[in-house]
Amino acid sequence: MPTRHPKFGLIYDFRNPPQWRKPWAQFYNEILDEIVYAEQLGYDHIWITEHHFIDDGYTPSVLPIAAAIARLTTRVRIGTWVLLLPLHNAIRVAEDAATVDVLSNGRLDLGVGLGYRIEEFDGFGVNRRHRASIMDESLEIITRTMAGESVSLDGRHYQVKDVQVTPPPIQQPFPLWVGARSVAAARRAARFKANLMIVADRPVYDAWADALREQGDDPDDFEVLLSAGGYVSDNPEALWEELKPHQRYLRDTYGKWYNDASDLGEQDPLGQFLHQTDEDLRARFVAGTPDEVAAAIERTLDWIPADHIITSPVPPGASRDLARRSIELFAQEVIPRFR
Asked: What is the per-residue pLDDT across 92-146, written as a single tens digit (0 to 9) for each?
């Protein structure tokens, strides 16, 4: 039997690759309908991820989509995994996030990260070398304004006086998450008393938990989100054959971005993504029976004590019918094993 009882969510990137393209309005409507169905199936969370200037339309505007989801759903929580904070004005993010929290009646989780793609920083005119210091000042503004403070800051990147967000978010305290795949990012998350969003990397988790303890906080008072799980089918090999070209597309695009950014250390688990063969992909991105996927999740939970597990319904360009069947099986035959 599982030793932990995580909540489960789905992550959406709204990628519509040219070789499998659908009309944009149709594509968005299909995914929004799928999200409503996921709520009906019992998923706890929907997460939206952000990138910019990509020909497949990778979600550039996460909070507007979160607002749309808020009006279409009643129970499921809505999160950003992650909003690329240094590319945004922190006050604008705070106001938009508070508005989405009101629209959703207190269901927003704001997850933020540094970002890494060179083209994004160039496109927004942001100096990529300053992203860490921008992130720090932005997090100070967001944490304080979302707590109802009137904020003044004379910083390197922000000079603001008596800024207050109205209307305020419904949730108090407001749930802030920080994405981390390095020790420095993990310690930043702890410093701002944020929940942790990670890829499966135990040293990052340990750095966050240790930093919380050093400042007198208990890690058990916070939450950890982990990307894990997989695609579920009664016929995994047939499913894999359908998913393979789409998983290759995912590998090749992320591989190029990581390589161009030179942003992943040798020990980073994402760095392995750059050199994966089809066999590696098949092993890493589980396409299995409910038993196989549940076992993979349980192994991950034995490694990192996560409170939330998220997975993608299908890779970019794959059939939404496949996605629906996968999320159905996952909800009906995997999630109950962890309840």
From this structure: 999 999 999 999 999 999 999 999 999 999 999 999 999 999 999 999 999 999 9
- The pTM of the full predicted model, rounded to 2 decimals, is 0.95
**Cα separation, 274 vs 281, whole angstroms:** 11
Exposed (0-12), middle (13-18) or buried (19+): which is 74, by Cβ within 10 Å?
exposed
Is residue 240 a contact partner of residue 314, using CB atoms and an 8 Å limit? no
Higher pLDDT, 319 or 284: 319
Is beta strand 83-84 parallel, antiparallel or unpaired with respect to 77-80?
unpaired
Q: What is the pLDDT confidence band of residue 274, given thresholds at 50, 70 and 90?
A: low
DSSP 3-state assignment of 182? coil
User: What does the pLDDT read at residue 285?
Assistant: 63
Count Cβ neighbours within 10 Å for each residue of 254-289 and write b for 16 or more, e otherwise: eeebbeebebbeeebebeebeebeeeebbeebbbbb
CA-based nearest residue to 106, from 166, 175, 47, 197: 175
Asked whether the beta carbons of 124 and 77 are under 8 A apart, the reply is no
Residue that has been written with the tokens 């690329």 in this structure = 84
The pLDDT of residue 269 is: 47
| CA contacts within 13 A on the Cβ side of 204 | 26
Q: Provide the CB-side half-sphere exposure for 17 (13 A, CA).
A: 15
Structure letter (DSSP) for residue 169: P
3-state secondary structure (DSSP) of residue 224: strand
pLDDT over 50 (residue 228): yes
